[in-house]
Amino acid sequence: RNVYKDYRFLELACDSQEEVDSWKASLLRAGVYPDKSSTETEENGQADNFSMDPQLERQVETIRNLVDSYMSIINKCIRDLIPKTIMHLMINNVKEFINAELLAHLYSSEDQNTLMEESAEQAQRRDETLRMYQALQEALAIIGDISTSTVSTPAPPPVDDSWLQQARR
Questions:
Q1: How far apart (Å, rounded) are the C-alpha atoms in residues 63 and 71?
Q2: b/e burial code for range 131-150 (CB count within 10 A of at least 16 → b)
Q3: CA separation for the pair 37, 8 (Å, rounded)
Q4: pTM of the model
Q5: 3-class state of residue 37 by DSSP
Q6: Of 18, 32, 69, 156, which residue is least crowded by CB atoms under 10 Å?
């Protein structure tokens, strides 16, 4: 027995317009069609373009779903390809710049041996690091001598307090 057969209106509460559209599409697929007069008041005159042909509505819904699916696939592909394309173009341009400009500049310098020499700043940093290493080695040796040459005395034996326990009884 269909309890809702005589009801003319169906009220739905949804959180978003997407849910409303999803419910409308589901109801259309199930064969529940909106009343022409209620849709005119509800959509403020936008119902003039509404077709009452259920087969046409299903076809439109199918095409809409296919287009949405296709557009989501295209959107995902574009989002994946854009960074890859940008990186490809940047890397190729940098590679061409290195081959054309930098190598030519390096080979045109008079003395290529000076290019591989250590700078004064790097030599100073290396010397400071070596001095720090030597100081740390000496500190570790001193700490090692202290811990091995330190004499410790054993702890005294425990105090016999059995006489106290007997006096309490």
A1: 12
A2: eeeeeeeeeeeeeeeeeeee
A3: 11
A4: 0.31
A5: helix
A6: 156
CB 8 within 8 A of CB 35: yes
The owner of tokens 């030519």 is 104
Identity of the amino acid at 22:
S
d(CA 31, CA 20): 17
**Two structure tokens written together for 47:** 């119902």
C-beta of residue 142 within 8 angstroms of C-beta of residue 149: no
**Alpha-carbon distance 86 to 119, whole Å?**
36
Contacts of 12 (CB under 8 A, 6+ apart): 20, 23
Q: Could you read off the pLDDT tens digit of each residue along the chain, which spans 169 residues?
A: 445 555 566 666 777 888 888 888 887 777 777 766 554 445 554 444 555 678 888 888 898 899 989 999 999 999 999 989 988 888 888 888 888 888 877 777 777 777 778 888 999 999 999 999 999 999 998 888 776 666 677 777 877 777 777 777 6
CA pair distance 59, 25, nearest whole angstrom: 12
DSSP category for residue 110: S
